[in-house]
């Protein structure tokens, strides 16, 4: 009788000490934030063993896989998260980011549209959708998204820079040059922006002196593509 009681008591203790779904989730998030990605996935999988429809665990697992550059596996996790709960913008946004990395621009834009519809206040959705639209050469739509970001966050240098790329694609070098000037004023370490500004000044406006100065700045910042232009036009 004592052995039977002891066995039941030990079994109850083991069961009671088993971590809960939330405890496993919390530990997985801590590991994810510490960039211990493989370990975090192990904890998210343990959560999913308890509850296969835990949308937060599925999304977090997708984030870890995304950071490991396992984009197809990440997309699968985000898709399962959306299937479990389609009311959050996060898995749509995250899946869009994975598609963006794969250069699947159309799929990325579709996901960013869904994310934007669920929460229009998230500027990163507009910014990343702008990048996807730029990849699709949908320049006017890309400009719109970058403008949305700039209106809310005028000091976001990369929004100005990518808007300039879209403006150049849309054959508007004057506005592009203005955006590039804004870029380098905000980020004086952006070699590609100095390069693109120098090329635009020389090719669109014949401003050799200003263009060469910006090309040389780009080269000094490590953007080696500027050297060809400098060698050919700035001697």
TrEMBL record:
GO terms for cellular component: cell outer membrane. Transmembrane segments: none annotated. It holds the Pfam family TPR_16. TPR repeats lie at residues 89-122, 123-156. It comes from the Bacteria. Keywords: Repeat, TPR repeat. The keyword Repeat applies. Gene3D superfamilies: Tetratricopeptide repeat domain. GO terms for biological process: receptor-mediated virion attachment to host cell. This is TPR repeat-containing protein.
């Amino acid at each position: 009788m004592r052995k039977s009681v002891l066995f039941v008591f030990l079994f109850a203790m083991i069961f009671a000490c088993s971590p809960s779904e939330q405890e496993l989730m919390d530990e997985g998030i801590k590991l994810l934030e510490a960039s211990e990605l493989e370990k975090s996935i192990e904890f998210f999988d343990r959560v999913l063993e308890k509850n296969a429809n835990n949308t937060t665990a599925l999304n977090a697992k997708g984030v870890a896989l995304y950071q490991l550059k396992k984009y197809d596996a990440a997309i699968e996790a985000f898709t399962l998260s959306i299937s479990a709960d389609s009311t959050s913008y996060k898995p749509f946004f995250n899946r869009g980011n994975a598609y963006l990395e794969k250069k699947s621009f159309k799929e990325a834009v579709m996901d960013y549209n869904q994310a934007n519809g669920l929460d229009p206040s998230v500027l990163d959705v507009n910014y990343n959708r702008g990048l996807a639209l730029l990849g699709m050469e949908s320049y006017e739509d890309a400009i719109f998204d970058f403008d949305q970001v700039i209106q809310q966050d005028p000091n976001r240098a990369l929004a100005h820079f990518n808007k300039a790329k879209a403006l150049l694609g849309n054959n508007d070098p004057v506005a592009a040059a203005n955006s590039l000037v804004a870029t380098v004023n905000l980020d004086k370490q952006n070699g590609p922006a100095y390069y693109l500004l120098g090329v635009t000044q020389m090719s669109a406006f014949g401003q050799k002196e200003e263009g060469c100065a910006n090309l040389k700045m780009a080269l000094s910042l490590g953007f080696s593509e500027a050297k060809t232009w400098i060698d050919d036009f700035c001697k």
